[in-house]
Design brief:
It is an enzyme of class 5 (isomerase). The chain has about 725 residues and is α/β, with parallel strands linked by helices. It is about 30% helix and about 25% strand. Bound molecules: adenosine-5'-triphosphate and zinc ion.
């Protein structure tokens, strides 16, 4: 008797298991293929994980209903990558695999119908009969507009079967875009500037062999021309048929960078980020899956896409915390990029002016090759940096006299000034100066932020908001006032002090509307004097040649935080902010306001010497036995009561306890109540990543078979970025 043909299917469900089905004759399946399967009373889209497995005996397997394509949506290397990631991050394989599909394909849509194909005519094939008017009209339409898309044609009244008929007759063929074919897709590129001597030396040290794995950390100070180097690298080493991936933290914030890539590579550039429409995503996904020679510029999740000819991976601003997904499948895009390059036998280049301590450590250990680029490109020089101690100085909305006169001076010279403040809104607290009452979020253990523009009190941790009141809600006194600084308040103060200069606020609130960031950036790029006031958003990769002054309103946030990564993040942010000053021909200046001007970290920061800082911070991590010297994971639980959360963590603790691990907690999270959920955590550390991984796998399996109340939610976060 022949063995029944079976397949093990992954479903997009938070379940740490796969499901076995019969494969009916004459269906044949390969791993990575999309199928429809019955599941309970539903029909679900699944992905074939394995075939020919021995099904458990005594169980009546249901048959696979149908295959959605006859080719695997996920090629082998992508499946391998995701099953590695599933194991490493302890996230269910099904959900991991499905993140590599565009939303339309996750829902079981057809991979072909929705793809926007471009068409051109061929001078061959059998002409439609003279009475096939529609087909003839279609043929003319395509002849007149080579590169026209299927959706444009259907909008014009033609049908997809008509298009298919012409294709089958060999009268039309698919092309890349607007009549462009592979051959000329690279032609409309313009050369960039000549590489500087320092850039050339760096370029020569980059891996020349794109057919072999290597990991390089490109430490290049701000404005050193790393982007130019990536462009040069791809131009020199990427073959015409190759695919490349360039990961960036946020695409919308740096349209200039994207424009530079497009100027160099024209049609070869494709983009990937969360704001694309479903059909744009499907379109790009198909290009990648079909092995078209794209250079994909994308955010975090781009690293999971089904590349088939990947030959170079670049991770720009590799230190950026947005590479780590904070919920669900909590992966690090940067770390997966390195593993992906390893699987695909190609180089990965991690670039930053402020590398993560993990990458810096790997470079120190010789795991990554280190390339240093320590001169600014063009005529630019590194900015001068100065600490301004603001203890017992009079402040105007947080800004000291010397800072204000430096701003005035820059504007007088026709230059631009930037003011960094890491809080949006008007003020972080509303307080009654009679009774001391402070307005708190009813759902979180936090204070409400006052947003003056729309007279609202908002919680920055949940979606709670209410109208701001003029009087204290507790004692009715009208001595109820905003305390502390946010971007809105600083904007308002500066607008009052410099009435003739535009003050431009850049934060999540001011850039919410689509396209508003583009408007802001083009105003700054016009070069006319202005003051930019903003949050982290201002620190990210912008190239504003006329900004000569950067002022940091308060640098002290990261000095005394409970999160062990806070000092690293503070140093990175401050150096990145500083890096926006003096990128053009004029010298730049940075003023950092602090109450701790004698703090060694801030003093080292002022010397602008990141390698020394990184080494110091690493020494502290080593002494504290913290990552990257040990592997770390955090179990996070939230429930309706703190007691439930702590109870579950206690039992996780007893599951995982044993030799080779150190456990801290359980303890309530820094914000113990968020959106009415009570949150606590348990930190697990080990010298051996393998050992930790094994323990986590066992623990997760045990937790899965427990009957937990539905209101108690747990998750494990491997290599956590936030530990508060
Ligand atoms: N060889 C060169 N000659 C002249 N100008 C250059 C050269 N290389 C780069 N530049 C210019 O220098 C500026 C900074 O370059 P780029 O944005 O690539 O720096 P970066 O290292 O990526 O900066 P950051 O890390 O601060 O974002 C840009 O305006 C770029 O056009
Ligand atoms: Zn809240």
């Amino acid at each position: 008797m022949t063995r029944p043909r079976t397949a093990r299917i992954a479903l997009n469900r938070p379940l740490r298991r796969l499901f076995d089905y019969l494969v009916p004759e004459p269906m044949t399946l390969t791993p990575g293929q999309r199928v429809k399967v019955p599941f309970g009373h539903q029909t679900l889209t699944g992905l074939v994980a394995e075939i020919g497995v021995e099904p458990p005996s005594g169980i009546n397997l249901k048959p696979v209903q149908s295959a959605l394509e006859d080719w695997p949506a996920l090629p082998e290397s992508t499946c391998k990558l995701l099953s590695w990631a599933s194991d490493y991050y302890q996230h269910p394989l099904g959900e991991c695999l499905f993140t590599a599909l565009p939303p339309a394909l996750r829902r079981g849509r057809s991979a072909e119908a929705k793809a926007d194909q471009h068409w051109q005519t061929k001078d061959s094939g059998e002409l439609p009969p003279a009475n096939a008017h529609r087909q003839l009209a279609l043929l003319t339409a395509i002849k007149n507009a080579p590169g026209i898309t299927s959706s444009e044609l259907t909008k014009a009244g033609f049908s997809r079967p008509q298009i298919r008929a012409l294709k089958n007759k060999g009268l039309i063929t698919e092309c890349q875009d607007r009549g462009r074919t592979d051959a000329d897709s690279n032609q409309n590129s313009t050369p960039g500037p000549q590489l500087s001597e320092a850039q050339r030396t760096a370029a020569e040290s980059l891996p020349a062999d794109t057919g072999r794995f290597s990991a390089t950390l490109l430490y290049g100070i701000t404005g050193s021309g790393k982007t130019e180097l990536y462009l040069h690298y791809l131009k020199t080493h990427l073959h015409r048929q190759d695919q490349a991936l360039v990961l960036v933290p946020e695409i919308n914030l740096t349209p200039q960078t994207l424009a530079r890539f497009q100027r160099y590579f024209g049609q070869r550039i494709a983009i990937w980020h969360s704001a694309l429409t479903d059909s744009q995503r499907l379109d790009t996904w198909l290009k990648i899956r079909n092995g078209e020679p794209v250079i994909l510029i994308g955010t975090r999740s781009a690293v999971l896409l089904p590349f088939t000819r990947l030959r170079t991976v670049i991770v720009d601003e590799e230190h950026d915390s947005s590479y780590k997904q904070g919920e669900g499948f909590r992966y690090s895009g940067r770390d997966i990029a390195v593993y992906r390059a390893h699987l695909n036998h190609c180089p990965v280049i991690l670039g930053s002016a402020t590398p993560s301590l993990e990458s810096w450590h790997n470079a120190q250990q010789g795991k990554y090759r280190l390339i240093r680029l320590e001169q600014r490109a063009g005529n630019a020089r590194p900015p001068s940096m100065e600490l301004l101690d603001i203890r017992s100085r009079p402040l105007e909305s947080g800004l000291s006299r010397p800072a204000l006169s430096a701003i005035a001076e820059a504007l007088d010279k026709g230059e631009q000034a930037l003011v960094f403040i890491n809080r949006r809104g008007f003020a972080p607290v509303m307080m009654c100066f009679d009774c001391g009452h402070m307005e708190e979020c009813p759902r979180c253990d936090t204070r409400l932020t006052y947003h003056r523009r729309d007279r609202a009190m908002r919680c920055h941790h949940c979606d709670f908001q209410m109208a701001a009141s003029h009087a204290c809600p507790a004692c009715k006194s009208d001595n109820f006032k905003p305390v502390g600084q946010g971007t809105e308040r600083t904007e308002e103060t500066l607008a009052g002090l410099f009435p003739d200069t535009p003050v431009i606020r850049v934060d999540r609130d001011s850039t919410q509307r689509k396209g508003s960031i583009q408007g802001i950036l083009s105003q700054v790029n016009s070069g006319a004097p202005c003051i930019l006031v903003g949050t982290q958003m201002l620190a990210k990769g912008h190239d504003f040649p006329n900004v000569t002054l950067a002022t940091v309103v308060n640098a002290d946030g990261g000095l005394f935080s409970v999160d062990f990564r806070a000092p690293e993040q503070m140093v990175q942010t401050l150096l990145q902010v500083s890096g926006r000053a003096g990128r053009g021909d004029k010298p730049g200046k940075v003023l950092i306001q602090t109450c701790h001007s004698d703090h060694p970290l801030l003093q080292a920061l002022c010397r602008g010497d990141y390698p020394t800082l990184a080494n110091q911070l690493l020494a502290e991590r080593r002494a504290g036995e913290l990552p990257p010297f040990r592997a770390m994971a955090i179990f996070r639980v939230d429930a309706n009561t703190m007691q439930e959360s702590l109870q579950l963590l206690d039992s996780i603790r007893s599951l995982i306890q044993g030799p080779g691990v150190e456990i801290w907690g359980p303890i309530p999270a820094v914000i113990a109540r968020k959106a009415d959920r009570h949150r606590a955590q348990l930190v697990v550390c080990s010298d051996s990543r393998k050992h930790l991984n094994r323990l986590l796998t066992q623990t997760c399996q045990q937790l899965d078979i427990r009957k937990l109340p539905a209101s108690v939610k747990w998750a494990v976060d491997v290599d956590p970025q936030e530990t508060g």
